[in-house]
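Lab meeting, item 3. Inverse folding demo.
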């Protein structure tokens, strides 16, 4: 959001993120993190269709965002349509006249995103030539690391490899950035 909102704690006009758009806006100051409300009549709003996928399911949300907000692939947005749960999501695609990597809200027809607050992590555990696959639901910021010992369905295992969404194999990663975890049963 443009830096035209004065933070009550910082006392400066700073950049803010809209957390909820209704009669008044609930915003968070990017400088100090303070959450406060602002009268929405100061800001022109744009309707936005957001399709959020969470595992195998997708859900359509209709939200209002500030008219001149810049949306970018890879950025996080808070999706709150006022009717259902609030979802933190990562933008995966933006459709304006065509698919673009960034655009102002007024030019966007649809945003595709994936939920990152709660995610599904695929885990493969092997022992003596036999592999068992599991899917667990966990918080997106939970960290998995090579060498960690964990338990799933009564099976203790040690993490030996992690595949990230970027195609690499990190030593540790947050659940939201993991494609698969491999473990050796103990």
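The presenter then showed the designed sequence:
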């Amino acid at each position: 959001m443009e830096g035209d909102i004065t933070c009550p704690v910082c006392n400066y006009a700073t950049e803010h993120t809209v957390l909820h758009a209704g009669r008044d806006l609930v915003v968070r100051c990017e400088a100090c993190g303070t959450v406060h409300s602002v009268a929405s009549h100061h800001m022109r709003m744009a309707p936005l269709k957001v399709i959020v996928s969470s595992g195998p399911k997708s859900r359509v949300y209709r939200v209002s965002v500030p008219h001149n907000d810049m949306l970018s692939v890879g950025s996080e947005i808070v999706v709150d349509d006022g009717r259902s749960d609030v979802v933190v999501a990562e933008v995966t695609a933006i459709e304006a006249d065509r698919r673009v990597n960034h655009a102002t809200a007024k030019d966007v027809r649809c945003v595709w995103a994936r939920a990152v607050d709660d995610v599904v992590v695929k885990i493969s555990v092997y022992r003596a030539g036999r592999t068992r696959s599991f899917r667990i639901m966990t918080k997106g910021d939970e960290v998995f690391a090579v060498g960690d010992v964990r338990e799933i369905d009564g099976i203790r295992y040690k993490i030996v490899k992690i595949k990230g969404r970027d195609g690499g194999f990190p030593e540790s990663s947050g659940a939201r950035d993991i494609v698969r975890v491999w473990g050796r049963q103990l």
